[in-house]
Amino acid sequence: MLLNIPAIDTTVMFGALAFSVDLPYHLFHSNTQGQCGVCDNDQSNDCRSPNGMVRSSCSQTAHEWQVDDHNNTYCQEPPPPPPTNCTADICQIITSSVFEECHSVVPPDPYLQACVFDVCHMPEHSVGCSSLETYAQVCAQAAVCVDWRPHTNGTCEYECPEDKVYRPCGSSDPPTCDARHSVAQCQGQSSDLDPRCQFQEGCFCLDGTTLLSSDSDSCVSSCENITTTTPQTITTPTKCTCQYKGLTITPGG
User: Fold this and answer.
1) Helices 109-121 and 128-141 sit at what angle, rounded to 10 degrees?
2) DSSP state for residue 34 in the 8-state scheme
3) Domain boundary among 127, 157, 187
4) Does 104 lie in the same domain as 144?
């Protein structure tokens, strides 16, 4: 899922286990803290505590930015260091031939270290999937597609509903039945200029079907079937939209 916020030139990308936030330097220079680090293009000061002290590892400072929420107990201080005999086999995929094409574009070592730390600190080794997913997302942003999930022996499976199929490198802006949607809008367009033109893994409509609209999760076999001369109102408990001649109009649109 890709969320664009034009007002602040920001892109938020949600994956199966992780998410990323892409902030523009000209608006957020030295204006971020915590898990986002300090937006000054200097990685040496990103692992900063709330008191301003810079640590050697972000794992030492992450819990210091935790917001107390008694309704959620999943954020706890990190456990003791892992035993020296800890093995993290799933993490080795990052430095294997699976990601080889991306190694020269995005150095894998930071992602490998994060993966080993997570796997060795958590009882469930599938937590390593988030590190692999994050590295694959960064590779995709650099126009390198990596189909890594089949190499995890089922540990990091991505399940899709029956009317959709998993694709490791689908379009972040898939075509829809909306008449205002241009299928060719990403042709020849650099992902650096338009984040909608990046690779994105996820569940996509089966071949021969099309996403009804950018606001819908339904796939249809023919867009002609939903084109009418009379407006159709689709109501849900949280919102309503109006579809007219292939256009999807949201409230206030």
Assistant:
1) 160
2) G
3) 157
4) yes
Nearest one of 135, 124, 122, 59 to 95, comparing CA atoms = 135
| Contact indicator for 130, 147 with CB cutoff of 8 Å | no
177 and 194 assigned to the same domain? yes
Q: Cα(first)–Cα(last) distance of the chain, in Å?
A: 21
Q: Nearest CA to 59 among 35, 39, 75, 41?
A: 35
Q: What is the DSSP letter of 20?
A: E
Question: pLDDT tens, 219-250?
Answer: 888 887 564 333 444 443 445 556 554 455 55
Domains contained in the chain, number: 2
In a domain, 251, yes or no: no
What's the order of all strands across the beta sheet hosting 247-249?
232-235, 240-244, 247-249
Residues 220 and 188 in one domain: yes
**Rounded to 5°, angle at Cα 1 from 192 and 14:** 85
| Residue 117 belongs to domain spanning | 79-157
Shared-domain flag, residues 172 and 137: no
HSE-up of residue 39 (Cα within 13 Å, Cβ side): 14
Output phi, psi for 27, to 5 deg.
-105, -30
pTM over 0.90: no
